[in-house]
Design a protein that fits this description.
mainly alpha; elongated; 3 strands; three-stranded antiparallel β-sheet
């Protein structure tokens, strides 16, 4: 197995773990109903919290981890030579697709959870309670779990795609790369005869 795949996968796992930790910490520190202050019996003042920064940081770390995994797996296995058709490559591609689905869902959950979280804002009081509909329970924990699933599946896919035979990134045999070379005919005329004007 290529050392580049191992190094990229380990770095992606560390960055993904940071994203997961930030997701669980954001879940723990989000605004609770007891922290909301009611002003003039009409407005609910939601306090400033660090959840916005944690959610944005977790989503950026998740993007970085998924990009590193995609590089390690050579673009979900599509950019590898002679890798299609083997059992490991098919399983690797399927795992990579599921990894991208989990990544997308986790990223969306992080962003939905970050909306109106880090700034001081007011909302009209409805009835006797302040609305907490935007404070969905478990949204950051769910995003963190899906981030862990995305990174785990992506790493497994990268290792499976790297282990397939013929999966190195070398050029195909017999194909020359570079500028085309034209042979001058033996009669001395140039290869392209241009009419003179």
């Amino acid at each position: 197995m290529d050392t580049q795949v191992i190094v990229l996968s380990v770095v992606a796992d560390i960055v993904g773990l940071v994203s997961v930790i930030l997701g669980f910490v954001a879940e723990k520190t989000k605004i609770k109903p007891s922290e909301i202050i009611v002003n003039d019996f009409v407005y609910c003042d939601y306090p400033t919290s660090s959840v916005l920064g944690m959610a944005i940081s977790a989503s950026l770390m998740l993007i970085l981890a998924e990009v590193l995994i995609a590089i390690a797996g050579s673009c979900c296995g599509c950019c590898r030579t002679n890798a299609a058709g083997t059992g490991k490559s098919v399983v690797g591609i399927v795992l990579s697709v599921f990894s991208w689905f989990a990544f997308t869902t986790s990223f969306i959950l992080f962003l939905v959870g970050a909306v109106n979280r880090g700034v001081n804002w007011q909302h009209l009081k409805i009835g006797d309670d302040c609305p907490l509909s935007s404070h969905l329970p478990g949204i950051f924990a769910g995003a963190a779990v899906l981030a862990f699933v995305a990174v785990s599946l992506g790493t497994a896919a990268a290792f499976l795609l790297a282990a397939t035979p013929g999966s190195s990134s070398q050029y195909a045999q017999g194909v020359e790369m570079g500028r085309p070379q034209f042979q001058v005919p033996s009669n001395g005329t140039p290869p392209f005869n241009r009419p003179t004007i």
